[in-house]
């Protein structure tokens, strides 16, 4: 192929975003003891890792209620379901890349 340099094909591995660029969403409802326990775990892990977190209430969001009422509390990481019922701190840390 006289003088032509073949194109190198790169296989790029996207490095995961650091925890401070991730968002954890806790979906639950008031008066739920499992939600209270999950909130403590989420708050502690997010404080430790620098990840942002938010809480959504299924009693005021019909779509969330329809999707998650049997699973609360539900934890999402960057909008994707991570866990439900019981939240494991170590597993959440790993999901955040910490």
From TrEMBL:
Region named Disordered: 1-23
Gene3D superfamilies found in the cross-reference section: Glutaredoxin
InterPro entries with a match to the protein in the record: Glutaredoxin-like (IPR008554), Glutaredoxin-like_YDR286C (IPR052565), Thioredoxin-like_sf (IPR036249)
Compositionally biased residues, Low complexity: 1-15
Protein name, UniProt field: Glutaredoxin family protein
Organism taxonomic ancestry: Bacteria, Bacillati, Actinomycetota, Actinomycetes, Kitasatosporales
């Amino acid at each position: 192929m006289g003088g032509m340099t073949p194109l190198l094909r790169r296989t790029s591995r996207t490095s995961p975003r650091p925890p401070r660029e991730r968002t954890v969403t806790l979906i639950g409802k008031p008066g739920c003891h499992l939600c209270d326990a999950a909130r403590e775990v989420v708050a502690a892990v997010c404080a430790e890792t620098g990840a942002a977190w938010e809480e959504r209430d299924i009693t005021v969001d019909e779509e969330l209620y329809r999707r998650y009422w049997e699973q609360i509390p539900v934890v999402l990481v960057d909008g994707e379901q991570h866990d439900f019922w019981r939240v494991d701190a170590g597993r959440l840390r790993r999901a955040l890349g910490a």
